[in-house]
Amino acid sequence: MSAPVAIEGCHVATCDADSTEHADGHVVFEGARIVAVGPGPAPAARRDGTVIDASGCLATPGLINTHHHLYQWLTRGVAQNATLFEWLTTLYPIWARIDAEAVHAAAAANLAWLALSGCSTSSDHHYLFPAEGGDLLAAEIAAAELVGLRFHPARGSMDLGASAGGLPPDSVVEDRDRILAETEAAIDRWHDPSEESMLRIAVAPCSPFSVTAELMRESAELARRRGVRLHTHLAETRDEDEFCQTRFGCSPAEYVEDLGWLGEDVWMAHCVHLSPHAVERFADTGTGVAHCPTSNGRLGAGAAPLQALLGAGAPVGLGVDGAASNESGRMIDELHQALLVARVRDGPLALTARESLAVATSGGARCLGRESEIGSLEEGKLADIALWRVDGLGGAGIDDPVCTLVFGAPVLERLFVCGELLVADGHLTRADELVLARDAAAAAATLRAGAARWT
């Protein structure tokens, strides 16, 4: 067993079921596991290893990103003034030219940026697999290993091209049999169900306007046969609602429920346009929601009914969404945005700072099916710990560290993932940020140049 690491002298927000906080507390971990959390200094028996004086800091669980498209880091700033459908149709032809080298560069830069903003676990919904692109899933998994984040890639897919009434061009869709075979192969190769797993695969057909009903049903059957989770986009815009009403005669939520897509093993991105009945069905079935407030605002999609979902008891986590619809992509920013959007939609009492933190941590863990392992600072859980400096300019004059975290401008001091120090003094420990930025910029330039030649 590794020698213990004791973090003490800080405000500790555990994000446990009782929202326990210690104004001057400690967190101790040995190896990958937390072994003590409480008020005051660490117990004497736990101080025979490394002791970190965290005075002036706030300790929280690592933040959990429940929805992303890492490859989109290469197309930030494109179609800045567009609806979702306009944005997609502009970008599909560019994305059709991605390959494994580009995806690795994008994913490494993007995951590094997430780590530097307090994220310890990230999902990724990769649904675009050009025929000559190489092994894109392997490329982003290698990027996660490089940076050190816990990773939940969702093997996405599209099989409903424009010629069949879908939104994406036929050049970026796949054959259904190939999709199912390659998704199962990904589970065989990569999925690790162990408690300390750093890598789990989900099954993730893209959306009602890019996937056939047959693929949705068969994907659900595959996921449940293999014991992995299901993910998709749902009810993001009014355009999508109109598409489903026209094509299927029902709302997006009714459509996916008819296909067997509600359940505790499912989480869906956005869910902006849910009826009160749909909110109840999500809560009753334990279906999770990845709330993406910045992306929804950037695309003018609207504001998800966060207060109603939380009030009903549905699992809700936060997601930064694709970097091309959230050009900042900082995980910590989503906590502030979630609070602001909720209050704009439902009034000043719609969401508190502590509720926003809970959504970003324990709520995200529920969405990913890992609430027994991550999402809170509790004895026996994995040592995913973010240490935020709240005594500098950003927190000056604020006597509530959680307020500084959500409303203000915290500085990430350290990030531990499974007990490993991944961010120290605001910098990555495993990878060179300048190299990652250079490689991503070069990949973006190559992609843009190729797209211009073929436009």
How does this model look, in words?
It is a single chain. The protein has 455 residues and is an alpha/beta fold. The mean pLDDT is 95. It has helices at 84-95, 100-115, 136-147, 176-190, 213-226, 238-248, 252-258, 276-285, 293-298, 306-312, 331-346, 353-367, 401-407, 433-454, and strands spanning 5-13, 21-30, 33-39, 50-53, 57-61, 63-65, 119-126, 150-157, 202-205, 229-234, 266-270, 288-291, 316-318, 385-389, 411-417, 420-424, 427-428. Helices cover 37% and strands 21% of the residues.
Any descriptors?
455 residues; alpha/beta; 17 strands; globular
Brief characterization of the structure:
With 455 residues, the chain is α/β, with parallel strands linked by helices.
Largest sheet features: 9 strands, mixed
User: How many β strands by DSSP?
Assistant: 17
Would you tell me the overall average pLDDT?
A: 95
Q: What is the approximate shape?
A: globular
Strand percentage, roughly?
Answer: 15-25%
Portion of residues within helices: 25-40%
List low-confidence stretches. none
Helix count, per DSSP?
14
Distance between the termini: 58 Å
Secondary-structure topology with pairs:
Blueprint: E1 5-13, E2 21-30, E3 33-39, E4 50-53, E5 57-61, E6 63-65, H1 84-95, H2 100-115, E7 119-126, H3 136-147, E8 150-157, H4 176-190, E9 202-205, H5 213-226, E10 229-234, H6 238-248, H7 252-258, E11 266-270, H8 276-285, E12 288-291, H9 293-298, H10 306-312, E13 316-318, H11 331-346, H12 353-367, E14 385-389, H13 401-407, E15 411-417, E16 420-424, E17 427-428, H14 433-454
Parallel strand pairs: 1-4, 1-5, 6-7, 7-8, 8-9, 9-10, 10-11, 11-12, 12-13
Antiparallel strand pairs: 1-2, 2-3, 5-14, 14-15, 15-16, 16-17
Helix pairs in contact: 2-3, 2-14, 4-5, 11-12, 12-13
